[in-house]
Amino acid sequence: MSGAAPALAAVAPLARLQWIDGRLARTAHRARVWTWGWGIGIGVATVANLAPLAFVAPDQRIDWYVAAGTTVIGVVPLLIAPLDVIGDSAALRPRVAAADRDSDLCPLLADAERMLARDAQNQADGQRWWLHVANVVLNTGVGLFLGLGYHHWLAGAFNTVSGIAIGEAIIFTQPTSSVDDLASYRSGSLGGAPAGTHPAGVVVGTTF
Fold this sequence. Notes:
The protein is mainly α. It has helices at residues 6-9, 13-50, 61-80, 84-98, 106-125, 129-150, 153-173, 177-187.
C-alpha cells in the first residue's frame, strides 16, 4: 500500500483483511447512528418550527418559515451524501465472509485498502475549514434576510446563532475513525496481530 511502513508487509493478508473489515464495520455503525440521529433531530426541529404557524401573527410567520427552511437545508446533505464508509463496509463484509482462505487474497485486500483510504479521505473532507465557513455564511445570511428584509432582528439573531451552533455540532460530531485507522494500518500497528496468524476477531479501538 502506498505510504505503508515495512512492518505492514510482515502481517498476513488475511489478518490485514479482517482488520480493515472490522474497522470499517465499526465506523459504518457510528456513521449510521450519526446520520439517523441528526436526521431525526433536524426533522423534529422542522416540524416544531412549522407547528406554531397557526397561532402566530401573520407578520411573524416568516420567522418560522425561514427557521423551518434552514433546518431542511441542514438535513439534505445527510440524506443525499452519506459517509462513504457505510456503503463500503456493506460491500466489503460479504466479500470477506465468502473469501476462500486458501486462495490469493491480494486482489480483495487491495480493494479493501482502497476503501479504507477513500473513507479516510471522505471523513477528513467532512471537517475541512470551508465547511465551517459555509456554515457561518449561510446562517449569517439567514439572519440578515430576516433583519434587513423584515426588520426582525431578534429572530434573525436567534436563527443565526442557533443555526451556526447546530451546524458546527454536526460537523464536529461526524465520525472520523477511518482517518486514524488508515494511519495505524500504514504503520503496521494492527492491534498486535503477529505475522502469519489468522485472528478470529478484530481489535476495537476507542477513537471516534
